[in-house]
Amino acid sequence: MAIRPLKRVTNQTRKRAVDLRQSATNPEQRLWSVLCRRQLGGLKFRRQHPIEPYIADFYCASAKLVIELDGESHEGRQSHDAKRTEHLEKLGLKIFRVTNDDVIHNLEGVGIAILNVVGIDPTEPSPNPSLQGRGI
Fold it and tell me: Which of 7, 41, 105, 127 could join 120 via S-S bond, C-beta 3.0 to 4.6 A?
């Protein structure tokens, strides 16, 4: 059974999330170009979404999925990332980690992997007809 988050998002965390959205890295921008506007399997994603005390790179509430991009900023932080993953999993969330290199060099494969994680067949047409032929 999932534990419900007890903390409201603090103003400090909210401001940090806004700052992170405004200073997105190239891999974050590339992945967001596929996740935004329900282009990927009709799923609604949020970027730099606060889940106190952390900020998820990307979050899909309906699938209870957190997508974390691992790049240079994560080197040497395996212990911190493990605690973060443990905390988020206790909240009933699935964590999908992807490297910046995968996003840059295999964006389509990353999109297919995300669909597989949430149990959507990547060969099925998007449930959002206005987005047919866009994204993955």
Answer: 41
